[in-house]
């Protein structure tokens, strides 16, 4: 069996944090008295690095107001994190363990900051669960492929032996730019129809389905939807 590198997005893919991100951003927007946005607009930017996300939400706002919004969001998010530990999606920990037992390597590519990712991995006891991680504040934000390219180089994998697992079109676009197989998950920030337009190799609606795919990955250019 070929050893593969599985690169996971974090928020909305492994970690059930999408609603927390939306709620915290809405609180920060209100605190800074910026024009209100819908929850759908905020959900759309999940997966981007925070500076890129804020510029997408408010392209006409000056840099100083975006920086003030960034600071408010970061403070409110950390305060909420101290009150409750983020939860993994059902089957996440078991799926990661099973992939590891089969000899595969694991990595994270996330729009979170390094400080934020290290904090949540520590809270969940997963600090040593991944062979490498890359965050948006230490490289280019998704959908630029540099984050994924750096992980492949660090762990010594070719694009043909890697897979990107994510819940947003930014994950899928990054994978396509690197020639890496993409697995889309349906429970995160972007809906299945939006993800399908990017032609991932597989769409799954439960993380353990990734184990079947890892044994017999479909050929490039095909899309195998998960069973109903």
Structure at a glance:
With 228 residues, the protein is of the alpha/beta class. 44% of the residues lie in helices and 13% in strands.
Question: In words, what does this structure look like?
Answer:
The protein has helices at 18-31, 39-44, 50-57, 63-83, 92-101, 114-123, 146-155, 169-178, 192-196, 209-215, and strands at 5-8, 105-110, 132-135, 162-166, 181-185, 202-204, 224-225. Strands 3-2-1-4-5-6-7 form a seven-stranded parallel β-sheet, sandwiched between helices. By secondary structure, the chain is of the alpha/beta class. It has ten helices and seven strands. The two termini are 28 Å apart. α1 crosses α4 (63-83) and α3 crosses α4 (63-83). It has two domains: 5-16 and 88-225, HAD superfamily/HAD-like (Rossmann fold, 3-Layer(aba) Sandwich), CATH 3.40.50.1000; 18-83, Putative phosphatase, domain 2 (DNA polymerase, domain 1, Orthogonal Bundle). Residues 218-228 have low confidence and may be disordered.
Number of helices: 10
Sum up the overall morphology in one term.
globular
Can you say what the CATH homologous superfamily of the largest domain is?
HAD superfamily/HAD-like
How big a fraction of the residues is strand? 5-15%
Going across the biggest sheet, name each strand in turn. Answer: 3-2-1-4-5-6-7
Stretches with pLDDT under 50, minimum 5 residues: 218-228
Mind telling me which CATH architecture of the largest domain this is? 3-Layer(aba) Sandwich
Order of helices and strands: EHHHHHEHEHEHEHEHE
- Domain tally: 2
CATH class bucket of the largest domain = Alpha Beta
Mean pLDDT: 91
- CATH topology grouping of the largest domain: Rossmann fold
Given the helix and strand composition, which structural class is it?
Answer: alpha/beta
Radius of gyration: 17 Å
